[in-house]
Design brief:
Helix content: 25-40%
CATH superfamily: P-loop containing nucleotide triphosphate hydrolases
Structural class: alpha/beta
Strand content: 25-35%
CATH architecture: 3-Layer(aba) Sandwich
Number of helices: 8
Number of domains: 1
Low-confidence stretches: none
Radius of gyration: 19 Å
């Protein structure tokens, strides 16, 4: 059985709005195992941003426990948390957050500069990651010479630079058109399938969420609903529509002829 890389136990976060306490998260429990690809959804005010800040070690809970790859991060001082953020997690943002004066390879190299890797090792690793996300030949292009979809691919490569325990993706398709949105979700799913990359994705997009293996609905600071996504069936080499055998490379089921990662069934 896969080991847990993220464990959240009885997590509560209370903010003070003037003299009035506001409960953003209430006794929330969540476990994400190594190699999982999950989506967290919820309406505005449901607690998604607060939960993201807790997992990303940007904010601390009022009570409860957060274990990242076995480390109890809710009790760590900031001088240790930056190492956790650098070594244990990779971040993918809606707005890409690439440095405009660096080329694609240099942006991917950036998280490795505080590690023990030599300059040659950093360059080699960055080039390999860019090839993995389909950007061979674009290494020397700065962000302004890349499309939005290509910029997000660079951001995903950067998130993988230090071989993190998991990737935390905050609305990774939010600034993309339909075609690029589809391609980015396919890329994340492929990384999960072929590299066993653990991915926690926060999204408003139910179609994107459906293409993960587990969907969670957050409401009023609690997880109120959970559902299997289409990606789980693909991991098990079974069509989610007719249960026929499929391969990892199949996009259309050879039996029922339906797109494997598409569904009309809403999650919310």
């Amino acid at each position: 059985m896969s080991k847990p890389v993220l464990q959240i136990k009885n997590l509560t976060k209370t903010y003070m709005l003037g003299k009035r306490p506001v409960q953003a998260l209430t006794n929330l429990n969540l476990q994400v195992n190594q190699g999982e690809f999950i989506a967290i959804m919820g309406p505005s005010g449901s607690g998604k941003t607060t939960l993201l800040n807790m997992i990303g070690c940007i904010d601390k809970p009022t009570s409860g426990q957060i274990l990242l790859d076995g480390l109890e991060v809710d009790k760590m001082p900031e001088k240790e948390l930056y190492k956790v953020r650098r070594d244990k997690m990779g971040f993918v943002f809606q707005t890409f957050n690439l440095l405009p004066y660096l080329n694609a390879r240099e942006n991917v190299e950036l998280p490795m500069e505080a590690t023990t890797k030599s300059k040659a090792e950093r360059k080699k690793r960055a080039s390999e990651l860019l090839a993995m996300v389909g950007l061979t030949g674009r290494e020397n292009h700065r962000p302004q010479r890349l499309s939005a979809g290509e910029q997000q691919r660079v951001a995903i490569a950067r998130a993988l630079a230090n071989n993190p325990a998991f990737i935390l993706a905050d609305e990774p398709t939010g600034n993309l058109d339909t075609k690029n949105k589809t391609e980015i979700i396919k890329l994340l799913a492929k990384l999960n399938l072929t590299n066993q990359t653990t991915i926690v994705m926060v999204t408003h997009d139910s179609q994107a969420a459906n293409q993960t293996e587990r969907m969670l609905l957050l409401k009023d600071g609690k997880i109120v609903k959970e559902k299997q996504g289409l990606h789980l069936a693909k991991k098990n080499n079974k069509c989610p529509h007719c249960n026929a055998d499929i391969t990892l490379n199949d996009e259309i089921c050879p039996n029922c002829k339906k797109p494997i990662l598409e569904t009309e069934e809403p999650f919310i």
